[in-house]
Amino acid sequence: MNEWLDRHMGRLFLAPAVVVVLIFSIFPLVASLIIAFARIRLQGGGYSVRFVGWRNFQKQLFGSEQFHLLGTFTEISALGWIFGLVLSGALLWWITLYAQRHFTLFGFFGRLITLAMALGLVWLFAATFLSGNQFGTLGTTLFYVFIGCLIQFLIGTALAYICSLRIRGRKTFRVIFFIPMMITPIGVGYTFRMLADTSKGPFSEIWQWVGLGNFAWASDPWAARFFIVMAESWQWIPFVFIMMLAAFENVPRDFAEAAELDGAGPWQTFREIIWPHVLPVAATVMLIRIIEAFKIVDLPNIMTSGGPGIATESVSLQAYFAWRSLDLGQASAIAYILLFVTVVICVSLFNLVILGRIRRTV
C-alpha cells in the first residue's frame, strides 16, 4: 500500500485540482455549447428545450440580429472598396508567398483560418467605419481591444522604463502608478462617469471654459467610446507597468553599460540591448491584455449601459443582455462567436507576429 501511494502521490495531489477544473470549467463549457444549438423556454414547473441547430448563429451572423453584432450594411463607399481590395490583395499575396516558400499542411491550414478571419474583419471595417455605417458590437469590441491595449502598452511600458532608471522618488512613483489596479471596475466606471460630467462634475468649470459645457459625451458614439477606453486604460496601465518594470529590472546592467562605453546613445542602447531582453515579457503582457479586453463588460455597462443605442455595447455585454432577457440560446451563441474570434486573433497574433518577431530578435 505504501509503495502504491509513493508511485501515485503526484496524481493524488493533482486530482482535487483536476476535479475542480472539470466541474467549474469543462462542464459549463460543454453545457453552454449544447444550449447554443437549442432554444430554451421557461415555463411553469420547469423549462422546455428544443434543438434548433445553427439557427442561433445564423440569426446573429445573417439574420435579424446581424445589425447588432456586425453592424449595418447598406452600401460600401469608394474609400471602403479601395481599402478592402488593397488589403485583400495583400492578404492573398501573403498566403501565396507562404505556399510557395514554406509550405506545410498544418501551417497552411492555420493560415487559411487566419486569412478568412482577416478578410472578414477587413470588409467589416470597410463596410461600417469607412462607409459611414453603424458599428456592431464586434466592431466596438475590436476598437476597445486594439486601441485600448495599444494605449495601455505604450504608456505602461514608458512609465516602467522611467521607473527602472536611477531617478529620485522612483519607489514613490511605483506605488502611485499601481494604485488604480486596486480599485474595482464599478468604482472606476462611476468615477470616470462623474469626471466626464460637463455640468456637475468636478471639472465642470474647465469644460465650461473650453466651450464644452453643454456637450453630452454619453450621447455621442465616438466620445462615449473614447471615454470608456480612457477609463479602461487608467485601470489596466498599472498591470502593464508592474510586469514591464520587472522585465526592465532583470536586464543585465553590464550589457547596457558596455554599450554606453562603446559610444551607443540612449535610444540605440534601448533598441539593441534592452528591448530584445524584455520582448518575450512584453509579448506575454500584450497577449494577456488582449484576451482580457475581449471580455470587457463592466465599464460599458456602468458608464453608458451600452448607449447611445448600441454604440458602446461590447459583444460580452450583448451576451449579458440576451441572458438577462432569458434568451439563453442566443446568449450562448454570442459567447461562442466571441470565443472563436478571440482564439483566432490571439493565436494568429502570437504565432505570426509576436513569435516571429522574437525569433528574429533572438
Give a description of the structure.
The protein is mostly helical. 73% of the residues lie in helices and 3% in strands. It has 15 helices and 2 strands. It has helices at 2-36, 55-61, 66-69, 78-101, 105-127, 137-164, 170-178, 185-195, 204-209, 221-249, 253-261, 266-294, 298-303, 315-324, 328-361, and strands spanning 38-43, 46-51. It has a two-stranded antiparallel sheet with strand order 1-2. A hairpin with a 2-residue loop joins strand 1 and strand 2. The longest helix has 35 residues, at 2-36. The radius of gyration is 24 Å and the shape is globular.
Q: Looking at the structure, what is the overall shape?
A: globular
| Strand runs, count | 2
Low-pLDDT ranges: none
Q: What share of residues is helical?
A: over 70%
Strand order of the largest sheet: 1-2
| Count of helical regions | 15
Q: Which percent range describes the beta-strand content?
A: under 5%
- Report the order of strands and helices: HEEHHHHHHHHHHHHHH
C-alpha-based Rg, rounded: 24 Å
Determine the N-to-C terminus distance: 51 Å
Overall residue-averaged pLDDT value: 85
User: Major beta sheet, specifics?
Assistant: 2 strands, antiparallel
- Given the helix and strand composition, which structural class is it? mainly alpha
